[in-house]
Specification:
- The structure holds 2 protein chains of 2 kinds.
- Chain A is of the alpha+beta class.
- Chain A contains 10 helices and 26 strands.
- Chain A has 4 domains: about 40-135; about 140-200 and about 505-545, TATA-Binding Protein; about 225-330 and about 475-490, Tick-borne Encephalitis virus Glycoprotein, domain 1 (Sandwich); about 335-465.
- In chain A, the strands form 6 sheets. In chain A, strands 14, 15, 16, 19, 20 and 21 form a 6-stranded antiparallel sheet that branches. In chain A, strands 1-26-25-3-2 form a 5-stranded antiparallel sheet, covered by helices on one side. Chain A has a 5-stranded antiparallel sheet with strand order 6-4-24-11-10.
- Chain A is elongated and about 125 Å long.
- Chain B has one domain.
- The radius of gyration of chain B is 21 Å and the shape is flat.
- By secondary structure, chain B is mainly α.
- Classes of the chains: A alpha+beta, B mainly alpha.
- Chains A and B meet through helix 2, helix 3, strand 1, strand 8 and strand 11 of A and helix 8 and helix 9 of B.
- The structure holds protoporphyrin IX containing FE.
- Protoporphyrin IX containing FE sits at the interface of chains A and B.
Chain lengths: ~575, ~325
Amino acid sequence: MSGLTRKNTRYAPAGIDDAMTSDPGEAPEPQLPTLGARGWARWTWRQLTSMRVALLLLMLLAVAAVPGSVLPQRGQDPAKVLTYLGEHPTSGKWLDRLGLFGVYTSPWFSAIYLLLFVSLIGCILPRVAAHLRNLRGRPPRTPSRFARFPALASGTSTASPDDVADAVAAALRRRRLFRVDVGAEPAKDARPEIRTVAAERGYLRETGNLVFHIALVGLLISVASGQLLHYRGQALVTQGRGFANAVVDYDTFDKGAWFRPESLSPFSLTLDDFSSEFATDAVAFAQSRDFTASVTVTPAGGGTTSQHTIKVNHPLEIDGAKIYLQGNGFAPEVTVKDADGQVAFAGRVPFIPEDTMYTSRGVIKVPDVSAGLEQIGLTGYFLPTAQIDDDGSARSVFPQPTNPMLVLQVWTGDLGLDDGVPQNVYQLDTANMTAVTGDDGVRAQVIVKPGETVDLPDGLGTLTLGADVPRYVALDLRYDPSLAWVLTFALLALAGLGVSLFTPRRRVWLRTWALPDGGTHVELAGLARGDDTGLQGEVDRAFAAVPGLRPPPDDDADNYQEDPR
Amino acid sequence: MTLAQLGEVSTTLVWGALASLTIALVAFAVDLARRTDVRAEHRSKAVSTAAQRELVGAVTAGASAATPTPSAVAEPVETTPRRRAAGIAMSTTTLGAFLLLVGIVTRGIAAGRTPWANMYEFTLVGSFVAVTVFLIVNRLRDVQFLGAFVTGLAAVFLTMGLNVFYIAAMGVQPALQSYWLVLHVGVAITAAGVFTVAFTASVLQLLRTARDAGSGWLGTWHWLDRVPAPANLEALSFRLNAVGFVLWTFTIIGGSIWAEHAWGRYWGWDPKEVWSFVIWVVYAGYLHARTTRGWSGTRAAWFVVVGFACVIWNFTGVNLVFNGKHSYSGLN
Ligand code: HEM
């Protein structure tokens, strides 16, 4: 029987090595066809859906996933990719062409898993059909020879063949695991009538296996639909302020191809308070222990507001979207008056933490100085617990604001905000600016504590730091309608896998006939799918149900007797 | 006793476990070598095939229940005083597992949390699971021939843990404060422990197959003749790997659920996620290979070797080399 003409009642993927589905004499692989285009198409399909190709594609998938853990990836860390490209200009360019900075969206990675899933679907559909027929079918007929089976038992009984067959069938039926058929082969020539029992259990194994594979397809489809429908927005919110769930209110916003702005539910959220805790013991000094943001949510279209907390591991869910606490820091309130005494800047400036002590970096851009004056830029650090060393360098020694201080350098010139090119708010473009130096030629540094007002060098004006240092949180809002499906299919796959791997699929057969010199010969055989250490026990249990067993004549392990033909 | 002192008690217990497992390793090795001597003495007596069958369960054999089980006939040598080494090995293994368990519990109390949150603790729990799986399987059928390898690997893990990965007991950052730390990480380490024992069986399978095929460089390793036939080793490895694979599948699903809570996405191809995926695909490939004509046996065993290498890499290199969200080694 060639692979191409296999009868579809017993479908199995080409190349499967399984005692239950393949005949030993079967040709291992379909022969190359001589049938023209259609024959080739069928042959190719059969190859693609064969176990061997599935295995090959699985191996390829494992190998193809690796480079994405070694090289920086655009999807995860675009800045790192830029750094890498800068450091390796030639090799980087080639790696980039090969898609190695975006492995998981690259054409070759996609090709591997899509082929795998085509193979998978091509494999499951006929298996489902065959399994459905199987579920309604009967156990396979009792084979005439038992010698080739891996588990055997035989002996002699004083009971009649009918009683033996009935007793064994009853024992097999007892736990409702087996589907059992009792039969007979009529006497022929010198051979007496033979009573047979054919029993099979573990149909659930194939069911589990199919559920597992189908769930994988469901998982892929759910993940893909999530990619198309999702959106994610990030917003930096300071204490007492808030944002509305609208595309324009986010600092960054990603969306899938099928996203519609209407699907944003227009609620709004205010950050009432933020608190953090850090370890103070010597072992884990300054390690973070808790972050809690307290927020007030105003539902879409007004209505009653409600209070919530958001913590790491405990996102807040509003209208199907989840809001995560992704980061936090300090946003000191800074007021700058220019040389004319006019308020040129007033506002909260978020400083981004750069280390575990929250030594935080930030930039203050002061464009709106009085006419005729140069614009001012300030860069530097906010230090929650400042410590100034003898050499004048300042750093933070604890993440909480026990001794807050702002240490800034001053630049004057053109901030470059008027060219219309969008600028990073956390970077100062110093191309057209000069650093302000003191009389000694050393860069001037402004040091200010909350509630203080200090003069800027060179008579540029004054800077006031607000008495309270507000905190900010980085919130990440995410909406992905596929999540429930992804979870469902993942759990189905897990369940199917467990059932498939741990449900034994076994067949047990009995042949029994009257011996010419009295007594009844009894023999049992068992066959299982895959390695099954319990198979012999199953056969032994069925054998133990034989009534009137005679003790064995000797301890020869092979007192098994051939069919009397 | 202060918590810091309790942490030190835990460390001392782990050193004790390491010592105990090292003694077990030596005793198991002595026992394997002695079995070989015994085998040499009895070489004239053709070793009954039944004896081999019986070692890992009669998967391929046609033993009948109507006849006495072959074990009675097969190995009278098993009960001679020469097996004293095996007795020492089993008791020191059990003691080692017990010391390790107490060490893990005291560590958890000292840190005030689940004791598997950094690499040092992974080595403790992983070794404990590997040794315990070995002890449990050994209750069901005789797998003492694996003892030297399992205790050996556990001793290597613990040595690495105590000398390279050690950090004092402490609490964890907010992202780790979740019951998923118990479930996801606990199951991941359990899977690794199970994979460890399966790996030893597959390595023995490969060595035994090579020796049976007349491989020259294994010529003097007579003890290999005393381990079960490759088919039985493969069956043992498969049963363990099947359990390991289900646990690993759960690890990945649980990790994704946790990532969804903690990081706002269930999958992001973080290095740890990449390698967990690679491990999963390699073991899925292994399960396929076993049922693909021409790929079961030796080739399937190589999948186990590669898969286990990925597991080890995932628990060590990925934490130390790559800088992902999972860098919780507590080192740096
Ligand atoms: C997405 C790709 C695939 C993955 C991850 C995968 C994974 C698995 C796993 C883990 C098993 C063992 C667990 C069980 O028995 O349920 C398995 C079994 C099986 N797979 Fe796949 N598979 C994939 C694709 C395929 C394809 C394309 C085919 C068809 C050629 C296939 C055919 C089979 C068969 C017949 C079995 C049963 C083997 C047995 O009898 O134990 N699989 N698969």
